[in-house]
Amino acid sequence: MIGYVTLGVADLTRAAKFYDPIAAELGVGRMMEFDTFIAWGEQGGAPGVAATLPFDGQPATIGNGSMVALQAKDADQVRRLYEIALANGGVDEGAPGPRGDDGFYAAYFRDPDGNKLNAFTMV
Q1: SS3 assignment for the chain
Q2: All structural domains of the chain with their residue ranges
Q3: pTM of full prediction above 0.90
Q4: In the CATH scheme, what is the homologous superfamily, with its name and number, of domain 4-54+67-122?
Q5: Which of 11, 25, 35, 37 could form a disulfide with 52 if both were Cys (CB 3.0 to 4.6 A apart)?
């Protein structure tokens, strides 16, 4: 079971500006915060997402093929999350829409550090 996912970032203030409104749309806020680390979610709730300056002091890098999927309650929320991401420095990786014919509806985007995320729901 996944407890949380941590993404390396170069600028924690910029990451907070990106992730705070996404978390708010999902109905959660910051659950932990330190000088080099912020985690969003709900203590004891669903898995959270964290942004961190790398502990080893080396530059943050993105994982090729890695992605964090954020579960939305419906297609409207998928669209809102996508719009929030792009309005806060995110980059488009695939506009909201159905993927395949099994009821999977998703939007894809990258955070300002290049980490890939998606918002999805099953309709």
Answers
A1: CCCEEEEECCCHHHHHHHHHHHHHHCCCEEEEEECCEEEEECCCCCCEEEEECCCCCCCCCCCCCCCEEEECCCHHHHHHHHHHHHHCCCEEEEEEEEECCCCEEEEEEECCCCCEEEEEEEC
A2: 4-54+67-122
A3: yes
A4: 2,3-Dihydroxybiphenyl 1,2-Dioxygenase, domain 1 (3.10.180.10)
A5: 37
